[in-house]
Amino acid sequence: MNPILYTLAFVLTPCLLFGSDPYPLNPAIDVQHYAFRLQLSEETNQVKGKTVIEVLLKNDIEAFSLDLQNETANGGMKVTELKVDRRESTFSHNNNRIRINTSGKAGETIRVTVQYEGIPQDGLIIGTNLFGEKTFFGDNWPDRAHQWLPTVDHPSDKATCEFIIEAPIYYQVVANGRLKEETVLSNDTKMTHWIESVAIPTKVMVFGAATFAVDHVGSVGSIPVSSWVYHQNKNAGFYDYAPAKEILATLQDIIGPYPFEKLANVQSKTKFGGMENAGNIFYYEKSVSGERRIEGLIAHEVAHQWFGNSASEKDWHHVWLSEGFATYFTQVYMEKTYGKDSLQIGMKRMLPKIDEYHAKNPTSAIVDTTIIELKKLLSPNTYQKAGWVLHMLRKQVGDEAFFDGVRTYYDTYKFSNALTSDFQAVMEQASGQQLSWFFDQWIFQPLLPELSLSWKYCKKLHKLSVEVKSPGLSKLVRLPLEVGIKGADGTISTIKTIDVFGESTSVEWDIAEMPTGVVADPNVWLLAKVKVVGK
Ligand SMILES: [Zn+2]
Q1: How many A from CA of 299 to the centre of ligand 1?
Q2: Which of 173, 243, 442, 484 is 20 to 30 A from 434, comparing alpha carbons?
Q3: Could you tell me which residues come within 8 angstroms of residue 340 by beta carbon, excluding any fewer than 6 positions away?
Q4: How remote is the CA of residue 274 from the centroid of ligand 1, in Å?
Q5: Which residues contact 307 (CB under 8 A, 6 or more apart)?
Q6: Ligand 1 center to residue 323 CA distance, Å?
């Protein structure tokens, strides 16, 4: 996700207060599949839903619960019928949870059918688009799927899904997966059926319905790439979204096979800048300019297809495994496409946001279990700083081990869930290095080092002395700082590394000629605020 519009989003939505990822996980059940059938109307915002849920029982149960927003004066959903394996079941629906009274044995799969109706308060955004036409867009992150879909609304319980949407005939409907059927039901109603055969988290299970113009851009291998834009934006939108094909090809080469059946890029009313819905990415309405301004945004959302949608965080506090990866692999895409300078420029551009956030939240680490509001997990820590951590990890282990490790991590946790420790273990294996110090200082500590570097040159002995002061820096922290030494022509002729630790670190290097200057971190590899204070 890209949070350009994030602040706005949570002004417009109810304040969601949670404990420390307090979702009441139920290890006794594992949802296998959702079939969401929804009827949409032009005249009202009322939707009628029928969801069939296949649930694998991991333990014997007497009852279990699903999430679905209750009906209130402001909207919400009313359950009209509930069946378990075709027999009506008693249930209660309170506090946005449906408790289903049914018993079962471990190993059984039961089918729960929930019929419901109501006006979604959130999650399914129903309204008029910027051209005044009615549209419907799912917008589930982080846990807003249950506003309109009966689900286990937590990323740890992934499932395959299908959307069967009945809508006025002039709507086109795009959802996760592949298009299975499109049938005219009557003079004014059409049914569109999409099936996603890859297990995905509820945060990225959505459909969109609007009067789109659709561009079938082409394929990358067997993966079709398409653009869905408001028909009034056809030419500009097709132009702006078309780079998704090259982005997909580039990232696939770097990370591994793309996990989903197709890639649709959709102009939408998502409250975010972009939302990485699986194979069905939604972008904000004004993403269309006709000037290709959103290449980085597309790259971010496409990178999420591997990181976040396929290999997902197991716990919300490890959301950097989605956002940090999407942020960094956007930069890696830029590097592969436009060269090394683009990577360095991109990394430098992130620094002010990291610095500003750190100044306001000096004790907050990337994994910060004290954060209780999910929206606050989206921050420069989990995006830009986490992207920087991956960049530094690449420097620490080298390109070969880094990209091998990332591919192995993805391959190991695709269609599944991971924690930071899982990623660390894979990277240790790939690099042959023990990396707990690295993950501890950068992921679990609120580290943003401030260093001052001074240097002097002894002409007689041809020695360059460098001292780095870092007040308050723990001796447990390791900071490999590259130092560029400028020769007579003013360009960097030599790069040396000083391993900074503790409050003061000094080195002496043999340098034949008097340097004309010294540059800290010339190749942009260390997240630190470094001042060079002169001779
Ligand atoms: Zn993102």
Answers
A1: 10
A2: 484
A3: none
A4: 8
A5: 321, 322, 325, 326, 329, 410
A6: 5
Distance 2 CA to ligand 1 centre (A): 5
For residue 327, the CA-to-ligand 1 centroid distance in Å is 7
> How many beta carbons lie within 10 A of that of residue 3, not counting itself?
22
The CATH number of 312-444 is 1.10.390.10
Radius of gyration of the chain (CA): 26
Instruction: Measure the CA angle with vertex 27, ends 23 and 28; round to 5°.
Output: 125
pLDDT score of 7: 39
The ipTM (two decimal places) reads 1.00
The segment(s) of the chain belonging to CATH 2.60.40.1840 are 450-532
pLDDT tens for 132-186 read: 999 999 999 999 999 999 999 999 999 999 999 999 999 999 999 999 999 999 9
Ligand 1 centroid–CA 307 distance in Å is 9
pLDDT digits (tens, 9 = 90+) for 433-463: 999 999 999 999 999 999 999 999 999 999 9
How far, in Å, from the CA of 211 to the mean position of ligand 1?
Answer: 27
CATH placement of domain 3-23+35-42+118-309: 3.30.2010.30
Q: Return the bridge partners of 484, or none.
A: 495, 519
What is the biggest distance separating any 2 CA atoms in the chain, rounded to whole angstroms? 94
Report the alpha-carbon angle 392-395-400, nearest 5. 125
Q: Ligand 1 center to residue 491 CA distance, Å?
A: 38
Q: Where in the chain is CATH 1.10.390.10?
A: 312-444
Cite the residue boundaries of each domain of the chain with CATH code 3.30.2010.30: 3-23+35-42+118-309
**Domain spanning 450-532 has what CATH number?**
2.60.40.1840
Q: Please write the tens of the pLDDT for every residue from 470-512.
A: 999 998 999 999 999 999 999 999 999 999 989 999 999 999 9
Cα 521 to Cα 113: distance, rounded to the nearest angstrom = 59
CA of 80 to the centre of ligand 1 (A): 36
CA of 276 to the centre of ligand 1 (A): 7
